[in-house]
Specification:
The structure is a single chain. The protein is α/β, with parallel strands linked by helices and 468 residues long. It folds into four domains: 41 residues, no CATH class; 111 residues, Nucleic acid-binding proteins (OB fold (Dihydrolipoamide Acetyltransferase, E2P), Beta Barrel); 229 residues, Response regulator (Rossmann fold, 3-Layer(aba) Sandwich); 44 residues, no CATH class. The chain is built from twelve helices and 16 strands. The protein has a five-stranded mixed barrel with strand order 4-5-6-8-7. It has a five-stranded parallel sheet with strand order 10-9-11-12-13, with helices on both faces. Helix 9 links the parallel strand 12 and strand 13. Helix 3 runs parallel beside helix 4. It is rod-shaped.
């Protein structure tokens, strides 16, 4: 017969795999296996619920106490030894004794078994102190433990486990095994040291901060960051994310996604991940692949400041830099800015001193050069003056020579002129003929035009008339 609607089965835990192979499904609400619609019910006949009929009272019926006492006796006889069991702490409360719920999960994280357990007070102090000393963890929900237990069944309080011992080394091993699994996966993807390869920022002008809301460590960080902001030395942009709880593996990566997107516009110098101190188990929650991958693939250097100085998480390993605590992170940022300012001031002073020194050297060089130029100019002027004197003397001598030559030529000309003087000529027997207007007559044709002429001899004048 085919199943028309889900039929729930009375399937023992040890037979669950057999039912699962036949096609049975598990209802997480009712915590029971059932036959999905369309499957043959005969396949699951051994687990089909029995038909319940109204009981007929008789003297042989049992009371609830009798039944549970029988179960108690059976459990006591069948499970009268001690067991070491692996489980995860679901909840832990202390009220004189320590009460807890422990659970087991499959490979997909689904809860497949759960039980109550008790650590009686006469053992609790010693066992929990040893656990804390060896692991550094508080015995609380969220960690995996190896417990030595004794099975108990009480007719009134039901099934529970009595804790006799706790093995801290198992918890440490589980923690380290988890870290190694994450490291191996990051290394296989080639991103384990991707953020560490960023050049470490030497200046902080704009910083992104990822932190849980209202965290004490965030308050300490902000109190000092506000001073830098007030003096316009550095901007801080805050992004909230839960650092505890079930959504931790999605909240922090989402914050990184937002920072990466805004980094393209804002151009942050670094992103800071901070969380104040707390239980080591709480901090260990941060050792998740998704969170580590978000840091490894961040598009800018990541600075981690989580917990106390003694605390260390896998986030510290993969980040570009770690400062251990939120206070140390802001101290590092402040000191970097201050050192840069001091260095800038020192560089400015050095530049000023060098400039002054160069100016003084240039001034001295200019003065020396001016003196050399002046000396050279005076020397050159002396040479030019001497050359000028020589030139003047040369010109003077040349002029005197030309003057002497001119005098000689004049003398010669004067002698020639004197030789051409009429008186001299008259002394040689020559005469000068003039007209009545005392004009010298030099040709016959002109003389014939005159009526009379005057002839000058060396010893006097003689007038004569002109005739044909």
């Amino acid at each position: 017969m085919l199943s028309q609607e889900p039929i729930f089965l009375d399937c023992p835990f040890l037979e669950k795999d057999e039912a699962k192979e036949l096609g049975a499904k598990f209802d997480w609400t009712k915590k029971k296996w059932f036959i999905p619609e369309g499957l043959e019910t005969e396949l699951f006949s051994k687990w089909l619920p029995k038909t319940v009929t109204s009981p007929v009272y008789d003297e042989n019926s049992m009371t609830l106490n009798d039944l549970l006492f029988s179960v108690q006796q059976t459990i006591a006889s069948q499970h009268n030894t001690y067991y070491w069991i692996r489980a995860e702490l679901v909840s832990v409360t202390t009220n004189i004794h320590t009460y807890m719920e422990i659970a087991d999960h499959d490979s997909e994280g689904n809860e497949i078994a759960k039980a109550r357990a008790t650590l009686w007070s006469h053992r609790a102090e010693a066992l929990l102190e040893r656990f804390a000393t060896n692991t550094g963890l508080e015995f609380k929900a969220g960690i995996k433990v190896l417990l030595q237990v004794q099975v108990e069944f009480h007719v009134r309080y039901g099934f529970s486990l009595n804790i006799l011992d706790i093995d801290p080394s198992f918890t440490l091993g589980e923690m380290e095994a988890k870290l190694n699994r994450i490291r191996t996966k990051l290394l296989a993807e080639g991103i384990y040291d991707q953020n560490q390869r960023f050049v470490w920022p030497t200046e902080f002008c704009k910083v992104a901060v990822i932190a849980p809301p209202k965290a004490a460590g965030l308050g300490d960080f902000k109190s000092q960051a506000k001073v830098l902001t007030a003096f316009n030395l550095c901007e801080f942009h805050y992004y909230q994310a839960n650092f505890q709880g079930q959504n931790i593996t999605t909240a922090i990566p989402k914050a990184f996604q937002l920072v990466n997107r805004e980094h393209k516009v804002e151009q942050f110098d670094a992103v800071v991940v901070i969380r104040g101190g707390g239980a080591k188990a709480d901090l260990f929650q941060l050792n998740e692949y998704e969170i580590c991958k978000a840091i490894c693939t961040a598009q800018l250097p990541v600075i981690v400041g989580i917990g106390h100085e003694r605390d260390k998480t896998l986030l510290d390993e993969v980040a570009c830099h770690t400062c251990h605590t939120p206070s140390l992170v802001i101290i590092h940022i402040v000191s970097t800015i201050v050192q840069n300012a001091q260095s800038a001031k020192q560089n400015w002073q050095t530049l000023t001193n060098l400039t002054t020194q160069k100016l003084q050297q240039a001034k001295a060089h200019n003065e020396q050069l001016h003196a050399q130029i002046r000396l050279q100019a005076l020397k050159s002027l002396g040479n030019q003056r001497q050359q000028l004197v020589t030139l003047i003397q040369t010109v003077k001598n040349a002029s005197q020579n030309q003057l002497n030559q001119a005098h000689q030529q004049i003398k010669m000309l004067m002698e020639q002129i004197l030789l051409g003087d009429p008186k001299t000529i008259l002394q040689h027997g020559y005469t000068i003929i003039r007209n009545n207007q005392q004009q010298v007559i030099t040709s016959k044709m002109i003389a014939q035009l005159e009526d009379s002429l005057v002839i000058e001899f060396k010893d006097g004048w003689l007038s004569c008339r002109i005739e044909e």
